[in-house]
Amino acid sequence: MIRVVFNQKGGVGKSSITCNLAAISAEMGYSTLVVDLDVQGNSSMYLGYDIHSEEALTTGTSVANIFKQRRGLLSTKQPPDEYVLATEHENLFLLPASIELEAMEKDLESRYKIYQLRKALEQLDQHYDRIYIDTAPNFNFYSKSALIATNTVLIPFDCDSFSKQALYNLIDNMMELKEDHNEDLRIEGIVINQFNAQASLPALLVEELKAEEMPVLDCYLGSSVKMKESHYRQTPLVYMARSHKLTQQFIALFEKIEQIPPGSFQLKDSAAQTETASAH
Question: What is the pLDDT of residues 25-43, one digit of tens each?
Fold first, then answer.
C-alpha cells in the first residue's frame, strides 16, 4: 500500500501528516517506510536524519541513489531497499531525501525518467506493508513521479482561503496527470489540518468544500504547540504524547483511511499493556 501526501501549497503540514500517520502504522505492527522526496528533508529530519550532516553528504544513503542508479551513475547496482535506514522506532523505516535531488531534477526530466520511481517502489512494496511518500510543495518532477507511482493521494488542507484556490489548481493538475500517465490515480481524501473549531472561517471553508462534493475526511486535525515540540524532539506524537488530543485525532484519521473500526489502535495498545503487565 503506497500513499502520497501532496499539496502544491507549502506550510499545510505534509511532513507532519506523513510522519505521524507512518508512526501510527508502525505502532499498529505494519512494516512502514517513509520516502522523503522533498529536497528540504523535513520528514527525514523529523525522523532523526539530517540530510545536511557530514554522514548524509559522505555516505550517499538517500532516495537520490535510486535515480542515480537508474541513470547508470553508480558503479554498483543495489536493490532499492539497500538505501533504506531503520529509525529508532520499531517497524518504522526511512528512505531519506538528499540535497542532490535539486541538481538532478532537470537532467532526469529532460531524459524522461519520470517512471523510474514507480519501478523502484514496485520493488520496495514487496518489503513493506505501508509506504508513505512526502513530496515537495510544488508540481515538480519528483511530485509527478510519486503521483505516477501510486494510486492513492492524501491532500492536506489548512483552512485558509489561499489553500482553497491552491486545492482547485492541484486537482486540475492531478486530473491531467491521471489522464496522461496514471488512470488509476485517486484522491483518498482531503485532510483538514490546523482546524480551529472556535473560529468561523475554517468551518465555513470546510462546509464549502463538502457542498462542492470534495472528498473531505471527517477526522479533523487541530492546531497545537505539541506538534512544534514533536518536531523539535524529532519524535512523532504517538511516541511522545500518546494521550494528547492531537495524537488521538491522528489515530482517528489513520483508522479512517485504513477502514478499520474506531478504537482499534487503543484496543491494540491496551492489549499490549495487559500482556506486558502479565509478563511481569
Answer: 999 999 999 999 999 999 9
Task: Sketch out the chain's domains with CATH numbers.
Answer: 2-267 (3.40.50.300)
Give the full edge-to-edge strand order of the sheet including 186-192.
85-86, 92-95, 32-36, 130-134, 2-5, 152-157, 186-192
Distance of CA 179 to the CA centre of its chain: 24
Amino acid identity, residue 220?
A: Y
CA distance 213 to 227: 30
Q: What is the pLDDT of residues 51-84, one digit of tens each?
A: 888 877 776 778 888 888 766 555 567 878 888 9
Determine whether 4 is exposed, middle or buried from the number of CB atoms within 10 Å of its CB (0-12, 13-18, 19+): buried
Report pTM: 0.90
The three cell numbers of residue 204 are 465555513
Beta carbons within 8 Å of 58's beta carbon, 6+ residues apart: none
Q: Is the CB of residue 18 less than 8 Å from the CB of residue 37?
A: no
